[in-house]
């Protein structure tokens, strides 16, 4: 891999700076020494945040006016966007990056949007950019764990299973809830026998033997399905599991199956989507700093041989997912602006920065392997 080096430190534009995740990210960027341009739809709110953070430059932009989003970026810039739900609101920022030739980073966890970005690989290459989707708690930790597990397992690994869990209380922001609800209404995917296949979400569950005991997760479409094959030619199957449900795992699985059935009824999907949009409008705040401090993130990955035997297992522990997301986005923005990506196209975290650099960035954010 050869680095795609910027001629000088590029501009970083943080779009969605006044939202819950956006503000956390702005603070993380400034703490790390970056001076992002803050972009949001409310001039008063974005200016107040910019003043608090030392007098940063601000721009007003709104996804309802795509031209305002397009005007944010120029060739060689880095746009980091937290404006979601991405399946509904993400297109203007991504298209602006493609049109301008600006590197792109987002905070989504939505399977349909992850697929949208990865399937635009040729467009991103043609634009000469790195497009990094789901560069937060969803789904950097699992990519790192998988990369470390594959490094240990070697070329005999054919299957990778990844799991996401938490310890302590779990509080979700309005944006997270809106994204999760939207994801329930769209098909998921899996990487099976060397190709991406469309499947319903939560169709399977898997148990991992973590240091905290057995943990069970439900299958979900994630960036690992696209990203792990980029770094391991021997891998034919990738599975990702979300373990947020605890004792409600089985009911959640059955509920997902029911929703999948209902959405096949003509008109039902549109009605459900409209109802969820009214009930979960999006960015409505999230857990406080004190509440976030009560929870920790756990990510695991196992690499399996063709006979199903486990070749390696990696467990990572770190702080709350929202804090990790802010730190990861700050790392990606800063690294793209100063060092550049290792390649162009729609990239997973390891492919974009290399395993060692990603591990160092994650460790700086507090996410580390446990022995």
Automatic annotation (TrEMBL):
Protein name per its UniProtKB record: Unannotated protein
Species of provenance: freshwater metagenome
Saccharopine dehydrogenase NADP binding domain sequence ranges: 12-132
InterPro entries: NAD(P)-bd_dom_sf, Sacchrp_dh_NADP-bd
Coiled-coil region list: none
